[in-house]
TrEMBL record:
This is Mug56/Spo71 PH domain-containing protein. GO terms for biological process: protein localization to prospore membrane. It comes from the Eukaryota. InterPro entries: Mug56/Spo71, Mug56/Spo71_PH. Residues 350-456 form the Mug56/Spo71 PH domain. Pfam families: PH_4. Residues 281-303 are annotated as: Disordered. It comes from Pisolithus tinctorius Marx 270.
Length: 518
């Protein structure tokens, strides 16, 4: 009877609609800051998972019991609140061909595309631009295609196109690192009548340059600059003066939105970390004064860990399960290859990202971008304007992730000193952490492969003796570590389900050892 009641509740959550905004409800298991959605009704072989609700009991750790909760299915929020209280919608992404003007005057043709607060640079040969409007218009005029099915197909194609662009990008820039976007000549960005006449006079391209009295000045009017927080300036030239104005306006809106968005996300992560750790602030804060009697406000009571944390859904969004975005998760983590690889200490925008007492060691910061079936790495360097990608991304086919104490045991013994206290750390966005190494560490085992994860790969099953490669990641705190492990684990499971025939053949590979003749 208990199982039947649970099944009815799950079906009700799938069918009922939240009255506010039409959001769907779903069941999830929560243990402190970890959240596990009940989202797969069948297993890898396609059989019904009659134990789907009970799977969350595996989260039990000693006396810590998981809680079964009903939560709203939230996707990536597409708006923010500015400091003045105004609501700002997420600006649309921008992409197109540009010419990069280098210091010595050389010109480099590039394709620029923005995704999830990052600006990706691609070679024109790998641009994969969107289909022209005439393609969609022909389907609308035809009238033989179901509108809903066609819209869903277009949406899925756009998501896949974004994944292809990100996998083909040779560099990335975080929009938070952009201080300003400006025109090279002031008259090109002024909204006066003279500026409008200048825009209309430029036909664009080579034809516009041939008709211009001063082609050099026209090139400057088509150009704009991206000023980075660290000081370097990137000059780009658009197709026409009108396109230059559009690039400036759209990039400014994206920089404003994503800078504020990352601040909100950082505050949310700080609040979740403070609630979970149940400890006072590492950096003392002045108490707030009460204007009525001049006294300080009493400290807040500690939060109940058994109570629900609605803000936790922002770290475990349904987008990672439904493939509705090209970028599943992105962010910066420490990385090294192998168990005995070296790290590099990296200082970005004047902020030290790790413990000052470990300055003798070398830490390397990487920008990770998780897309469908692959983990892409970009090496962060302070002196570079674009973070260059590693020459090969990590395929999540046959990958395995593990973390915590089990991952720490794989490290050399000299790196684990359980008797030494862990010094506190404070980061430039206000995040404070004092977790030990085993709470911020996770490792990824993977195989080097050049094949795609889309479609059947039953003929490419590696032998059981095939070697794995290991990459070690370290986050800033435990909350970030758990969110990354969850996103990677969900994507690994989706890769397995997309290759069911290969997975079945892999299960049947090998056999029992015959010891009858020994």
């Amino acid at each position: 009877m208990r199982y039947s009641a649970s099944t009815i509740s799950l079906r009700q959550c799938d069918s009922r609609q939240d009255l506010q905004g039409g959001k769907r409800l779903a069941l999830a298991w929560r243990l402190e800051d970890q959240l596990e959605w009940i989202w797969q009704p069948t297993d890898v072989q396609g059989n019904d998972r009659r134990w789907s609700i009970l799977c969350g009991l595996s989260l039990k750790q000693g006396r810590k019991l998981p809680h079964l909760e009903i939560r709203t299915v939230d996707h990536f929020r597409e708006f923010i609140r500015l400091p003045d209280g105004m609501r700002m919608e997420e600006p649309p992404d921008v992409e197109g061909y540009l010419d990069r003007i280098k210091t010595q005057g050389q010109r480099q043709r590039i394709y620029v595309s923005t995704h999830d607060g990052n600006l990706f640079a691609l070679s024109p040969n790998d641009a994969n631009p969107p289909a022209p409007p005439s393609t969609h218009l022909s389907h609308m005029v035809d009238g033989l295609t179901n509108v809903d099915q066609y819209a869903e197909g277009v949406f899925r194609d756009e998501v896949e196109r974004g994944v292809t662009q990100i996998r083909s990008a040779y560099g990335v820039m975080d929009l938070r690192n952009i201080q300003s976007v400006r025109a090279v000549l002031p008259e090109a960005q002024q909204g006066e009548q003279d500026s409008d006449l200048l825009i209309d006079a430029d036909e664009g391209g080579v034809e516009g340059l041939a008709k211009a009295r001063d082609p050099l000045r026209l090139r400057l009017q088509r150009s704009f600059e991206i000023v980075l927080v660290s000081g370097p300036v990137i000059r780009l030239e658009a197709y026409s003066v009108r396109n230059c104005r559009e690039w400036i306006d759209k990039l400014r809106a994206l920089v404003t939105y994503w800078t504020q968005r990352h601040k909100e996300d950082a505050r949310l992560e700080i609040d979740i970390s403070d609630v979970i750790n149940q400890r006072p602030q590492l950096t003392p804060r002045l108490p707030k004064r009460n204007n009525d009697n001049g006294g300080s406000t009493p400290p807040e009571a500690p939060r109940d860990l058994a109570a629900s944390l609605p803000s936790l859904t922002s770290l475990y969004r349904w987008c990672a399960l439904s493939d509705c975005k090209s970028v599943i998760k992105s962010g910066r983590v420490f990385m090294r290859r192998g168990f005995r690889g070296q790290y590099k200490l990296v200082i970005v925008a004047g902020c030290v990202f790790d413990r000052p007492d470990l300055a003798t060691k070398f830490f390397r910061m990487s920008q990770l971008v998780l897309v469908s079936g692959h983990l892409i790495q970009f090496q962060v360097r302070r002196s570079s304007t674009l973070h260059r990608r590693h020459w090969r991304d990590i395929s999540l086919l046959d990958a395995y992730i593990y973390s915590g104490y089990l991952a720490a045991l794989a490290l050399p013994r000299e790196e684990l000193n359980y008797g030494d206290p862990t010094p506190p750390r404070r980061y430039c966005d206000g995040l404070e952490a004092d977790e030990p190494l085993e709470d911020v560490l996770f490792m990824l085992w993977y195989r080097k492969t050049r094949t795609s994860t889309g479609g059947s790969q039953a003929s490419q099953v590696p032998p059981p003796s095939a070697k794995f490669k290991t990459v070690v990641f370290k986050t800033r705190n435990k909350v970030e570590r758990n969110a990354w492990c969850w996103a990677l684990g969900c994507e690994i499971e989706k890769v397995v389900r997309r290759n069911r025939e290969r997975e079945q053949q892999l299960r049947e590979t090998g056999g029992l050892v015959d010891i009858s003749h020994s």
